[in-house]
Amino acid sequence: MRIRLNRESVELDGGKPTVRRLLEERRLPDKAIVVAVNGEVVRREEWDSRVLSEGDEVEIVHAVAGGSGEDELEIAGVRFSSRLFVGTGKYEDTQTMREALERSGTEMVTVAVRYMDLSGERSILQELDLSRYRLLPNTAGATTAEQAVKMARLAREATGTNWIKLEVIGDQKTLWPDTAATVEATETLVKEGFVVLPYTSTDLVAAIRLEEAGAATVMPLASPIGSGQGMPDWASIQRIVERISVPVVVDAGLGVPSDAAFAMELGADAVLVNTAIARAQDPPRMAEAMKLGVRAGRLAYLAGRMPVSRYAVPSSPTRGVPAATG
């Protein structure tokens, strides 16, 4: 049986391995550590009874000295070094997709749930290195809360993950999200143990309601899905960033790395990009460019921009300028 232990693929011997047995076999201390399975903390008194299953994501953490300088993103107890999430759709072929994912440096990819092609077409899961990427199945295509919940349940069975990118579309022409239905579906899925990352509009109140419903992130659109328009309503996204305490992931409509950098400069915690990479003339190269844009934007946000002035401010000293001679 194979599990993921602190992001590394690990093979366990037969039987029904428990958390306690895993710790003992690896000669790990049973004090001052925390164990989480699939993003949920396992209490110490449950270590003997909690049986691990194929594909489980196990995290073992302990306190260490601070000051490492790491800037990782944490969602539902899971930490990510990369703040760029990437979609797997719209690529011309799977080889291009795999190269783009590699060069993007991403650690989480989205996949859609659709009826199986009975002609024998390979599943997207067969094309991905699941030891490297966390899957984020989405409910793309859902138009009601009930449909989205059903798709989420199917996705959990098909992929083995309880993480879901929730999408409920309210208008087919613009693919604008139905925020009321999204909040309703979020409440239902959170109660069923899902880690919900909902796609939403730039409406601040909708973002607040999603956080109240238990969403693990809020994912406002930059502009309509697949449009490449960038962030025309950046001020609304900035309001969400300033108000919401869970991570904010800017999703949909980003077209170029400068869009991703701008989102990160505003204080967004991450961005999710699909079409801008998949439909670029050179998707792997664009994926790498997006990675660099995200990094630059994040560094700029952490550094803090200079104050904006209405007038010019000289960068050279104004005193001691040599006078002209007669």
SSE order, one letter for each helix or strand? EEHEEEEEEHEEHEEEHEHEHEHEHH
In DSSP terms (H or I, runs of 4 or more residues), the helix count works out at: 9
Q: Per the principal axes of the C-alpha atoms, what is the gross shape?
A: globular
What amount of the residues lies in strands? 15-25%
**End-to-end gap:** 90 Å
Helicity level, as a percent range?
A: 25-40%
> Mean pLDDT, as a whole number?
85
Based on DSSP secondary structure assignment, what is the total number of beta strands?
A: 17
Structural class given helices, strands, pairing?
alpha/beta
Oligomeric state of the chains in view? single chain
Q: Could you give the order of strands across the largest sheet?
A: 2-1-5-3-4
Return residue spans where pLDDT drops below 50 for at least 5 consecutive residues.
63-69, 116-120
Sheet with most strands = 5 strands, mixed
> If you compute it from the alpha carbons, what radius of gyration comes out, rounded to the nearest whole angstrom?
23 Å
Q: How would you characterize the overall build of this protein?
A:
The chain is an alpha/beta fold and 326 residues long. The protein is built from nine helices and 17 strands. It has helices spanning 19-25, 94-104, 145-159, 179-191, 204-212, 234-243, 257-265, 275-278, 283-303; strands spanning 2-5, 8-11, 33-37, 40-41, 57-62, 73-75, 78-80, 84-87, 108-112, 134-138, 163-166, 169-171, 176-177, 195-200, 219-220, 249-251, 270-273. The protein has a five-stranded mixed sheet, with no helix packed on it. A five-stranded parallel sheet has the order 10-9-8-17-16. Strands 11-14-15 form a three-stranded parallel sheet. A hairpin with a 2-residue loop joins strand 1 (2-5) and strand 2 (8-11). Helix 2 runs parallel beside helix 9 (283-303). The longest helix is centred in the last third of the chain and has 21 residues, at 283-303. It is globular.
